[in-house]
Amino acid sequence: MNDIQVGLLGIGTVGSGTFKVLQRNQEEIRRRAGRGIAITMVADLDTARAQAVVGSAAQVVSDARAVIANPAIDIVIELIGGYGIAKALVLEAIAAGKHVVTANKALLAVHGTEIFEAARAKGVIVAFEAAVAGGIPIIKALREGLTANRIDWVAGIINGTTNFILSEMRAKGLDFGAALKDAQALGYAEADPTFDIEGVDAAHKATIMSAIAFGIPVQFDKAHVEGITALQAADIRYAEQLGYRIKLLGITRRREQGIELRVHPTLVPAARLIANVEGAMNAVVVQGDAVGTTLYYGKGAGSEPTASAVVADLVDITRLHTADPHHRVPHLAFQPGALAATPILTIDQVVTAFYLRLVVADKAGVLARITGILAEHDISIDAVLQRESAQGEEKTDLIILTHDTVEGRMSKALAQMQALPTVLAPIVKIRKEELN
């Protein structure tokens, strides 16, 4: 049987890794897929760089649309990224009857509903394992491996840049700015790291996982997103003293009223496996009613780890190339007509526990007034820690861990506490999840 022919749009870090993995493991891949898979055409604006990677094995062009227009191409891999030209090219490839493989989490998180509907109408596959957590097969796990389960929640470290920065802050006692500079010097952070450090990249990925876990449309615009730029070394240190570590988590949870979808710094008990994921590694925890808790760990980025996921998608499509479209696994795990209109909860509706740090005047009665306000709002306290403040004499750092409460209730209590004359600085609030 002839090789299935693949066109590659963009041969940067992941694209070159995909080409190399396919070349190196061609015999193994052929045995698994039932036929060979060959990248025969590559589009990249830097044609010289592309030619240096592929040699004589593939035709190199500068126009991506030439790849889409080639009738011999069965699958198009989109590795350009972003929302703009990538969306147009993906939709054009679908309209031309090509299957699509993409690592573009931003595109799918924002425009996934439109793209998946176009693919369904045309009877082609859009595969996107590489869009979330790099080489970790979390999409396949959620969509296929855990299909017997009613998923309760998913929580993940799904951005390696921020996890590296938080690991450096904890291990070396650095502030955020210094840890970011280290990450940039070592190549873990981009020159403009905004999407990573502000939580946007993680929110794109969390949005996709939420849709698959709960059978809802992708709704990135409804996600609550916070980054790590405001984190202080003092809070990482205090969290450690209390038996917790701070991680940037993407969390999505099923509640009676709707679905939580949020990304923010989170205190996690140090005893949890996910709390011990360090450096640029990724990990995702999934809680299902039948299987219980499962953990998926590995490299979330990089040339060949991400290429591993891209090639796995190519193999899947090759196996299903001639299958009846109605018998394929749906893009979002649930049949298109069965997607639920379950609402995404606002952050004020979220239920979680909290870490609070207040810089207060070192006077009698201050603690009693603070705990009294929490009690007035029906917020129970789990632990209290009092330490000498680094902000000067006659000031105390008051650290409070609460039990679960509705965020809106906590916001009202914080406003009341912040107004006290004995509270001498903005109150630090970080959410806490036990993940048990």
Report, as a whole number of angstroms, the end-to-end distance: 50 Å
Number of helices, where a helix is a run of at least 4 consecutive DSSP H or I residues: 15
CATH topology annotation of the largest domain: Rossmann fold
Give the quaternary arrangement of the chains: single chain
Instruction: Give the beta-strand count.
Output: 17
CATH A-level architecture of the largest domain: 3-Layer(aba) Sandwich
Strand content: 15-25%
Judging from the principal axes of the Cα atoms, what is the shape?
Answer: elongated
Low-confidence stretches: none
What's the CATH class of the largest domain, please? Alpha Beta
Verbal overview:
This protein is of the alpha/beta class and 436 residues long. The chain has three domains: 168 residues, 3-Layer(aba) Sandwich (Rossmann fold); 162 residues, 2-Layer Sandwich (Dihydrodipicolinate Reductase, domain 2), CATH 3.30.360; 82 residues, 2-Layer Sandwich (Alpha-Beta Plaits), CATH 3.30.70. Helix content is 37%, strand content 25%. The protein contains 15 helices and 17 strands. Strands 7, 8, 9, 10, 11, 12, 13, 14, 15, 16 and 17 form an eleven-stranded mixed sheet that branches. A six-stranded parallel sheet has the order 3-2-1-4-5-6, with helices on both faces. It is elongated. It starts with a strand and ends with a strand.
